[in-house]
Amino acid sequence: MPNLLYLNTENTNSLPNSILKSNVDRDKIKTGIAHIGLSNFHRAHQAYYMHELIEQHQELNFGICGIDLLESDRKIYNILKDQDGLYTLITKKANGTIDYKIISSIIEYFYGPENPLAAIERLARPDIKIISLTIAEDGYHLNETTGEFNLTHPQVKEDSLSKFNPKTVFGYLTQIFNLRKERGLPGCTILSCDNIQANGDTVKKSFFNYVEKTTPSLLPWLQENTSFPNSMVDRITTVTSAKDIELFKDTYNIYDQWPVVSEPFSKWIIEDNFISGKPDWEKVDIQFVKDIEPFENAKLRILNAGHSILGILGTLNGYKYVHEVANDEDFIFFLEHYIKTEVIPSLQNTEQQNLKAYKKEVIDRFKNPHINDSLSRICKESSSKIPIFVFPTLLKQLSNQESIAHATFVMAAWCKYYDGVDDYGKTFDITDNLSNQLIRTAALSQQNPQLFLENNSLFKDLVHHDRFKERFEYYLSKLRSLSIKEGLVLMNTGKL
Ligand code: CS2
């Protein structure tokens, strides 16, 4: 057995062509994009698209500079530094085939908590034409119901007081653009790649609110010199397991400390609103449209809501992975019915999409038994997700006087989820910023179901709807004595 190869530039010459077929001299790639949040998703999606564009079309002006801002990102930062930005994308097809590809589009990396000024200086340089973000739903500090920026969030408040050691994306962006303005440099595009409603508009509004409060003199310059396209991003990317690392090591004799695992499907649709230019992304099948909203709503309310629903219901039934739930008829029948009778009818301007086919495609993707997407990943921070993924369907159906049965059943199951115990008596972990609050109100709901809804600003709009409140109480009282599976069987046969 030859010596184990550690993944880094020096060793790339020894890598088999099948996983690193490079036509490009990496030293010639210039940085054009700075990406904040080197999540697994970013590495399977945007960095993958850039890699393809660099390799297949010799695009040398948009290499990626990665920036991490969170304490929890220290590990990925150190690994990427160790591996010269290289990592492996592991793609698992539904038929069991696994593809490996070394991705080489990340060419610089900075870690904010270690040296915030270095990161700020780097992003202030005009070669960076796009600053993209994957900071997760909770990184935007939005009020869950109103969608407004939460200026009173402790970290946001802290940043507004100590400008030179920022913690939030908004603190960083303010310093970066302050420098660009002072130095007479151009602005750039801020591209959100997170699953939040109107992600570009939202980040713009939040950022401008923050600037108005902290550095109002910068605002007119920002209005002239920045743009914020909305986008829809899609690729299921799971938590990497020790087994994935081992399998790659055993197959190729290469040690990658943190490869990324994803499905073969990938999609990215963006509004064409880039103030300082963009790569020729069309060449790698990225779509540009005038109005992203119909695509984004369909994705958030079908795929992401579908995930959360399988996550919550499946966890209550003791399942651990998405594919286990998606291959259980009772669960999938319920989900299909929800999409068909409550989501699709409440979506608007959908002429350009075949939503029936999209529903089928999404469910087939959920069934892929090889990517092992854990329900704990899906349920993490569900109090930031459910309001985006499920509430809009519920509110639209309520205002249209249409059926809310499935969505409300899900809300009742979500309340039961905060008991932290499945139907077999096994406890599970809940990772959620609002867990203390929601665990407490879920416990109180044993006496009075309405307390789960009323004690929480989360449900603001919904609690004005008596029809919803009554249904919620009905389903929750049923679910207190039925298992989730029994409840689903009754729902699926129209008996509940
Ligand atoms: C998931 C998403 O986190 C979630 O709740 O639904 O991460 C999902 O896998 C991606 O949006 C797929 O594009």
Automatic annotation (TrEMBL):
Q: Which SUPFAM superfamilies match?
A: 6-phosphogluconate dehydrogenase C-terminal domain-like (SSF48179), NAD(P)-binding Rossmann-fold domains (SSF51735)
The record's GO molecular-function terms, alphabetically, read: oxidoreductase activity, acting on the CH-OH group of donors, NAD or NADP as acceptor
The UniProt keyword set, sorted, is: Oxidoreductase
Query: Could you name the domain of life of the organism this protein comes from?
Result: Bacteria
Q: Which residues form the Mannitol dehydrogenase N-terminal domain?
A: 32-283
Pfam families named in the record: Mannitol_dh (PF01232), Mannitol_dh_C (PF08125)
Q: Which InterPro entries match?
A: 6-PGluconate_DH-like_C_sf (IPR008927), 6PGD_dom2 (IPR013328), Mannitol_DH (IPR000669), Mannitol_DH/Oxidoreductase (IPR050988), Mannitol_DH_C (IPR013118), Mannitol_DH_N (IPR013131), NAD(P)-bd_dom_sf (IPR036291)
**Residue ranges constituting the Mannitol dehydrogenase C-terminal domain according to the UniProt record:** 291-478
User: Which range is the signal sequence, renumbered to this chain?
Assistant: none
Specify the protein name.
Mannitol 2-dehydrogenase
Protein species of origin: Cellulophaga baltica
